[in-house]
Amino acid sequence: MRVAIFSDIHGKILLPFKLVDLYQKETGNTVDFILQCGDMGAYPHIDNLDKATVKHAQYDRDELGFHDDFTKVNPNIKSFLDELNIKMICVRGNHEDHDFLDNLENDNSQTSLFPIDIYGKVFVCKSGFIQELKTKNEVLTFVGIGRIGDRKGRTEKRFIQEYERKEIRKLLKTKDVFDLLITHDKDDSSQRGYGMSEIREVLDNIIFHYHFYGHTGEPFKQETDFNGITQSIKIKELEFNENGILEKGCMIILTKENEELSIEIVDQKLTNTMTKYNWKTYN
Fold first, then answer.
1. Which of 62, 94, 111, 115 has its CA at 20 to 30 Å from residue 105's CA atom?
2. How many independent structural domains does the chain possess?
3. Containing domain of residue 169, as a range?
4. Dihedral angle over CA of 182, 184, 189, 192, nearest 10
5. 276 lies in some domain
6. Model confidence over 102-142: pLDDT tens digits?
């Protein structure tokens, strides 16, 4: 099984799919799923944009990609996604239309993940629930925790909610070992004054082989977590730099084969094929 992992796509919903398609064509390796670490930019209604997205969208229409391309059928996009036949499973970030996502989550109360787009290819997983990805020969287990933490007692929907904390407390009772933890925020062990305490608690009490996160704006980095077990990986945001190219560590391929996990940091020679100026029309 191969899984492509991205973070902070900010409306460029189509870009991970296009990069996976390119990766498959260039390497001959099949990708089975996409995981995404939040800040999808899932804004179906322009009136509900947050201040940061309004600001960036003035200069970059890609910020509105969910609204433009994933709320009504574009025949070309539909044909491409149907042929690719891969699902992208995301956690919530802080830059999302949480009212929209809350409504969908409530409508799908009996499932641990739910679709959010017109094509049925983009899913959000609920925080604290155990998830499984399955292929013919492998099963990958992971847990997602969305949104961001807060140390000031704020309750806006960009911050983790009490009902999610309850699910995480249930999760802490498990003795299972999981392949991945996927979060938007990082844990709160940093001295910078941000992070999510719930992530730290999960990492201290449950064994995960890998933890992937985004949000912080830091470069890509891989290190052993404070628990001495988990490999913690900060994925570089899927953003084009001032030269119009994607930066190192914005696309990770995780492979599970015969119960063994390994990761590949996709070479920039491949990701640089798609630039800020050509990615939407690149075939």
1. 62
2. 1
3. 2-271
4. 160
5. no
6. 999 999 999 999 999 999 999 999 999 999 999 999 999 99
